[in-house]
């Protein structure tokens, strides 16, 4: 009953018992977020193939889904999984969730100065010899804060990467002189170990134009130069293979092109997180998969299905989907099809979503569809499939998400249900 839009027939049953009834999409209430099993398999395989060809390792960002079952798909060996090197997360709490589900190598792509989180990391390393935890530092003050939290002792040093940023970006040290000082402070600490360099190029560019790509490439070259400077200075522990990491979901192709040739003595780790789910908005427009890499783009695995509540004007439909159900920070949803109907193409032609309230979506129907009378065929009670943008802010609104075999089927069959832990 606490799982949004699951039918009363699921109440009191285990997940396995409910799925054994072979429910279909039409058995669920609306609004409903679904994941497409076939699209996720396709996306994971495409990314794993690319990583192997590019000579990089994958540590997908788990914050995108916060779904341990989906993390397992990334970590499992091929051919069923991506064979990922590890998992990236953003906070110590997220790392705790991952550890509770057996993830052994975790890169916290962030500064960790919370003493509670740092003590947990130290205790986890003490209790499990096969666990590896890495985090970032972008200032000597960060290093000092970490040391203060660990002053009670750490049986194994925490592995820390120097984070390189850029002007106008997010976190990350802004110049190489300061970066060298951070590395020296880490190397001198009895509680820390210099493990490499990292950063996020996605904060420095927001499109796929030539100028944006040039900024990304220049940043990645600076990251490689910093790694070589630290290696030449002997700041890495003897015998350690450093990590050089970058790569969100927009420019991972540039990471694969620039870093491996410049960092042959390091593990180049790509942290893309959105590829598993992908979208019909921001990432569909900027992802290099299918644009610069091969001819088979990622496929969106997430959709919201929403029901028409009201047709107060010929060109307007109000649907039962709002800001509590769908992402809207990187673009509004897009109406794609009418469930169980074959005439949706002319009904929805020219339509767009103009606004989301807490519980309502405003679907504006196209002028031609209204003039021809096609728009009138969208009736109260019809269910519309919506394409979404930005999986990070879509999945966090759902605790239990049905997985369908094929979202393009007339009435998709639900084959699984994925729990999120946000």
From TrEMBL:
* Documented EC number(s): 4.1.3.41
Superkingdom of the organism of origin = Bacteria
Instruction: Give the keywords, sorted.
Output: Lyase
| InterPro entries, per database record | D-amino_acid_metab_enzyme, D-ser_dehydrat-like_dom, D-ser_dehydrat-like_sf, PLP-binding_barrel
Q: Which GO terms describe its molecular function?
A: lyase activity
Q: Which residues form the D-serine dehydratase-like domain?
A: 301-405
Q: What is this protein called?
A: 3-hydroxy-D-aspartate aldolase
Q: Which organism is it from?
A: Microbacterium azadirachtae
């Amino acid at each position: 009953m606490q799982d949004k839009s699951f039918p009363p027939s699921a109440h009191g049953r285990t997940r396995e018992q409910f799925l054994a009834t072979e429910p279909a999409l039409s058995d669920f209430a609306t609004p409903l977020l679904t994941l497409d099993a076939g699209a996720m398999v396709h996306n994971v395989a495409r990314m794993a193939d690319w990583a192997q060809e590019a000579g990089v390792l994958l540590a997908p960002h788990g914050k995108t889904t916060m779904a341990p079952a989906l993390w397992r798909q990334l970590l499992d060996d091929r051919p069923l999984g991506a064979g990922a090197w590890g998992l990236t997360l953003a906070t110590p709490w997220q790392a705790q969730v991952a550890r509770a589900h057996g993830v052994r190598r975790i890169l916290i792509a962030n500064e960790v100065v919370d003493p509670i989180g740092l003590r947990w990391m130290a205790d986890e390393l003490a209790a499990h010899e096969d666990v590896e935890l890495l985090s970032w530092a972008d200032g000597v003050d960060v290093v000092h804060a970490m040391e203060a939290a660990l002053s009670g002792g750490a049986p194994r040093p925490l592995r820390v990467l120097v984070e390189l940023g850029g002007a106008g970006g997010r976190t990350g040290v802004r110049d190489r002189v300061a970066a060298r000082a951070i590395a020296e402070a880490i190397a001198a600490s009895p509680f820390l170990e210099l493990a490499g360099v990292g950063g996020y190029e996605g904060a420095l560019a927001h499109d796929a134009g030539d100028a944006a790509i040039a900024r990304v490439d220049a940043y990645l070259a600076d990251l490689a130069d910093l790694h070589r400077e630290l290696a030449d200075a002997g700041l890495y522990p003897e015998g350690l293979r450093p990590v050089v990491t970058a790569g969100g979901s927009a420019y991972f192709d540039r990471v694969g092109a620039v870093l491996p040739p410049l960092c042959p003595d390091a593990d180049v780790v790509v942290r893309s997180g959105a590829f598993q789910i992908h979208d019909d908005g921001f990432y569909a427009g900027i992802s290099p998969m299918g644009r610069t890499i091969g001819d088979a783009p990622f496929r969106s695995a997430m959709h919201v299905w929403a029901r028409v509540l009201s047709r107060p004007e010929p060109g307007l439909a109000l649907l039962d989907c709002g800001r509590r159900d769908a992402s809207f920070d990187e673009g509004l949803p897009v109406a794609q099809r009418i469930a169980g109907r074959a005439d949706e193409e002319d009904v929805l032609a020219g339509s767009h979503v103009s606004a989301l309230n807490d519980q309502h979506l405003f679907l504006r129907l196209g002028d031609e569809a209204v003039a021809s009378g096609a728009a009138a065929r969208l009736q109260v009670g019809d269910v519309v499939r919506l394409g979404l943008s930005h999986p990070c802010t879509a999945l966090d609104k759902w605790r239990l998400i049905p997985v369908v075999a094929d979202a393009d089927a007339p009435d998709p069959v639900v084959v699984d249900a994925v729990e999120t832990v946000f």
